[in-house]
Write a structure and sequence with these properties.
A 3-stranded antiparallel beta sheet has the order 1-2-3, with no helix packed on it. The chain has 3 domains: about 55 residues, Alpha-Beta Complex (Aspartate Aminotransferase, domain 1); about 30 residues, no CATH class; about 90 residues, no CATH class. The protein is mostly helical. About 35% of the residues lie in helices and about 5% in strands.
Length: about 210
């Protein structure tokens, strides 16, 4: 069985497949199993912008694997500590901490939980045409009903545009919200500053348990 046949037989598919078997890449190009070259405009759906087979990245991954493959967050770690410090050093002013996670959907899930914890409110406003992920909370904030409807009922309190939030709350969003401007299946559509100003409530103090 070739790669197509094996995946069709054993994968629980969640993506529509293009009729290509990609077997290797270099820089911004990838090759299929018949040796044809393509410019990679997918970039791992936005997560592989440094290119394929980058020698510096490959060496860094191999070196770390020779030292320590994984270290959970219940322990301190020297490499993770340096990464966090570097991220904060290049982040916009006022951002003094980072949450490390595995995917965009996990980041959106964390943002929803952080907003609830910091504000005590449950409403989340997301932009029209936005795609935020396939996990339950991220899916609840995603615009296209074709993605959402098969998995309902979803997380309540997630209107998918500012107008419906305004109608419900008298002009003020009900929860902590950040403008999510990256849209995976739409063009980039910059939001209006006037629409989002004044919508995020003041954080409240929370106590660790």
């Amino acid at each position: 069985m070739n790669a197509r046949e094996l995946e069709r037989a054993y994968a629980l598919e969640v993506f529509p497949k293009r009729d290509l078997t990609i077997v290797r890449g270099e820089g911004a190009c990838v090759w299929d199993d018949e040796g044809r070259r393509y410019i990679d405009c997918v970039g791992g759906i936005g997560v592989a912008s440094i290119g394929h087979a980058n020698p510096a990245v490959a060496e860094a991954v191999a070196e770390q694997a020779r030292v320590l493959v994984s270290c959970p967050g219940i322990f301190y770690n020297d490499v993770r500590a340096r990464l966090l410090a570097e991220l904060v050093s290049i982040a916009p002013a006022g951002l003094t901490g980072a949450f490390l996670c595995n995917s965009g959907a996990e980041a959106v899930e964390a943002a929803i939980k952080f907003a609830r914890l910091a504000t005590g409110r449950t409403g989340i406003v997301s932009a029209m045409r936005g795609f935020h992920g396939r996990t339950l909370g991220a899916l609840s904030a995603t615009h296209k009903k074709e993605y959402r409807e098969p998995f309902g009922p979803l997380v309540p309190g997630c209107p998918r545009d500012h107008r419906s939030a305004d109608r419900r709350s008298g002009g003020h969003a009900d929860g902590g919200t950040g403008r999510l401007t990256l849209r995976a299946d739409s063009a980039i559509r910059p939001g209006s500053n006037g629409r989002s100003r004044g919508r995020a409530p003041r954080p409240r103090q929370t106590r660790s348990r």
